Amino acid sequence: MERVEGTVDRGDVKLYALSTCVWCKKTRALLEELGVAYDYEYVDLAAPARQDEIEAEIAAFAGRASYPALIANEGCVVGYRPDDIKKLLNL
Q1: Cα–Cα distance between 88 and 64 in angstroms, integer?
Q2: Do 9 and 66 form a contact (C-beta atoms < 8 A)?
Q3: CB 49 within 8 A of CB 38
Q4: From CA 74, how far away is CA 51, in angstroms rounded?
Q5: Which homologous superfamily does the CATH classification assign to the domain defined by 2-75?
Q6: Residue-level pLDDT at 73
Q7: Three-state SS across the chain?
Q8: Fewest CB within 10 angstroms: 14, 58, 61, 90, which?
């Protein structure tokens, strides 16, 4: 995972994304606009075994793996949903 520093610390915030996904890019831009520190990983660039681990982690929260997936505060938002992302991050 790669770290993006920010002025707002919401604990362990993880973004799983695809490197070619426009909605994933919008989610990253939103987090940076909000100043949130987070870790991210491009799933499509990960090794197959790591992809399986990520999909299982997302599915544990959301029932299925889809991207972007933002995991924080023991919750998950799948897709680019700014209002839900802000709510998850208590912003």
Answers
A1: 18
A2: no
A3: no
A4: 21
A5: Glutaredoxin (3.40.30.10)
A6: 83
A7: CEEECCCECCCCCEEEECCCCHHHHHHHHHHHHHCECEEEEEHHHCCHHHHHHHHHHHHHHHCCCCCCEEEECCEEEECCCHHHHHHHCCC
A8: 90
Residue found under tokens 């681990």: 53
Tens-digit pLDDT profile for residues 12-41:
999 999 999 999 999 999 999 999 999 999
pLDDT tens readout for residues 30-74: 999 999 999 999 999 999 999 999 999 999 988 888 999 999 988
